[in-house]
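User: Quick sanity check before I run a bigger batch. Here is a single chain. Can you write out its predicted 3D structure?
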Amino acid sequence: MVRNTVAIQTGKDPSRAKMVFYWGRTADGRPDSFFPADGSHWFWPTDGIRLGDRLVLFLGRLSGTGEGLGFTGAGWRAVMVENPDDEPPRWRVRPLKTRENILGVGASSPVRLGGRIYAFGAQDQVHSSPLHVMRWTEDDVRKGNLLEPEWWAGTRVGWVADSSLAPRWPVLENGLGVNIHYDTVTRRFLQVQTSAFGAADVTIRSASDLTGPWTAQRMIYRPSEFYQPDIMIYAAVAHPELSGADLVLTYSTNSFRLFEDHTGGSLIYYPRFIRLARCRQGTDR
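Assistant: Done. Predicted structure follows.
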């Protein structure tokens, strides 16, 4: 199994859209990761943002541990795709220099707001941990200049330079996964995640500002796989760019009995789609 691939979707309604997958090749033609490994480290794409004729992708950097799930976060990287309108095999991908910092897993969920790009991240990819936010100017991100972000240091201090000794202040204490977007209907920022890692519900919370305060988590969906033994339910993500519902969500499933359940049932390792319908004013639905 390769570490990462690229998928290009044509159409915004997932019930009718088409998707084509791309991956890399070794020198002798065997399948390989699209974004090559760096020695003993490999990369999991987390998110990205299109800025004009450029595409910036954030990558979580992972390494093996030999225990637990077999991996741990080892920093993050970013790459610039200089010709994103071409098919992925023809992409010109340029690695960008980034800081090694408290975002041990990698920046994600980029939000464009007021001429700046905001990105979130946490140190732990699996367990609930504090969620931090940093930002750059939109022009710097488009040029690939990511070495001098500003960090949120709390309401009393505000935004500080990367060189500041001020403590970075989390915007959420219990983030699990990183998925935040601005909702044009409610005019609030929404954050979707799973409630735990294992048998978990899909939850949502909101804030009027990216830096909070955020509401408490609210359970909006219990997956049908919840009661299966050894189940992993994780990676709940909102897709405001998709159509077919008020808000399209996905979550992923896997098993703590990785090899036994994968060889016995090929459908476990797939994303599941949810149609989220908003409550209508004047009704209880």
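The helical segments are 138-143, 258-264.

User: Great, the batch can go ahead then.
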